[in-house]
Amino acid sequence: MCTACNTFLDRLIDRGLLIETGVDGLYGRSGAFESVIDGFDAAISRIGGGDGAEVIRFPPGMNRALFEKSGYLKSFPNLAGTIHAFGGDDAAHAGLVERLAKGEDWTQHQALTDVVLAPAACYPLYPVVAKRGPLPPQGRLFDLNSYCFRHEPSKDPARLQMFRMREYVRVGTPEQVTEFRQTWLDRGQALVGSLGLPFHLDVANDPFFGRAGRLLANNQRDQRLKFELLVPIDSEEKPTACLSFNYHQDHFGALWGIRTSGEETAHTACVGFGMERVALALFKHHGLETARWPDDVRRALWG
Ligand code: ATP
Ligand code: ZN
Questions:
Q1: Ligand at shortest distance from the CA of 148
Q2: CA 141 → CA 159, 171, 257, distances in Å?
Q3: Residue 235 covered by a domain
Q4: Would residue 89 count as lying in a domain?
Q5: What residues line ligand 1, using a CB cutoff of 6 Å?
């Protein structure tokens, strides 16, 4: 038993479920942790798998030009992660090695690459959909899963810098898209209920940056565009968003030029599952040993 384990994070590390890297919000995961992620992933597929979604797996890096166009830097400049690489010559390299050895700033010749880290699984999708031309009459449905990056270092194990997000994304008419979101609001609650977790739903807003961002956040709340399914993990007072249900209206449709079969601007919605957050919620509420979890919870995960 760990005597210095004061927090949930300490206990997770002490048990080897998370492996420290020296950076807050960046952890290795054990086999036991991953088996919970796999079980939850399979449980999502058991519910959504019959809908005929097209499966696409993007890498965690996305095209920087498309990221720049997406507007992410307008709303969340503080969270974005960009990838740089050395672009200098021999002399610059010698300087780099020297400064590194002295513990000085070595980044002088680091230049932006064409790749940034995806902030959400669905960001690379919209331009791909637009490129295919007008939607079929039934619209489109996608199944995504990607590692995502957000620069929000924290001691809260549920606020990671790199984490996995599974998503279903619906693209179509306003009716098709709002029906999809309602279906997943119902399914999401049933799913999390089957895992024996306490939860509630609430309207939410994204953490838009700055003073102008406050306006966007208020608008998002007032129009009930985002719902979150919250589970207490780090604290009872501030429960954690484990699933999100987002209705973007025609925002991405207009930005990327996605048209319905009736030549209207397409609407989009997505449901996002925070894979690590759900796993952490399960460890928090059922204990650190999966073998001792309630039978019905184990069945919901692993059949
Ligand atoms: P929060 O309000 O907690 O910052 P969010 O509203 O920014 O979360 P979304 O942008 O809706 O989250 O992301 C979709 C899902 O990804 C969330 O419901 C959550 O489960 C998960 N997620 C978001 N940020 C993190 C993070 N830093 N660490 C782990 N999971 C995350
Ligand atoms: Zn999304």
A1: 1
A2: 28, 6, 17
A3: yes
A4: yes
A5: 120, 150, 152, 158-160, 163, 165, 204, 206-207, 241-244, 272, 274, 276-277
C-alpha dihedral sign at 45, 31, 198, 158:
negative
Domain that holds residue 75: 8-81+119-302
Q: Look at residue 18 and tell me if it is in a domain.
A: yes
CB atoms within 10 A of CB 50: 8
Position 1 scores a pLDDT of 58
Number of Cβ atoms within 10 Å of the Cβ of 16: 14
pLDDT of amino acid 54: 98
Closest ligand to Cα 26: 1
19 within a domain of the structure (yes/no): yes
Identify whether residues 100 and 21 lie together within a single domain.
no
User: Residue 22's pLDDT is what?
Assistant: 98
Confidence of residue 168 (pLDDT cuts 50, 70, 90): very high
Report the candidate in 259, 248, 266 with the shortest Cα–Cα distance to residue 120: 248
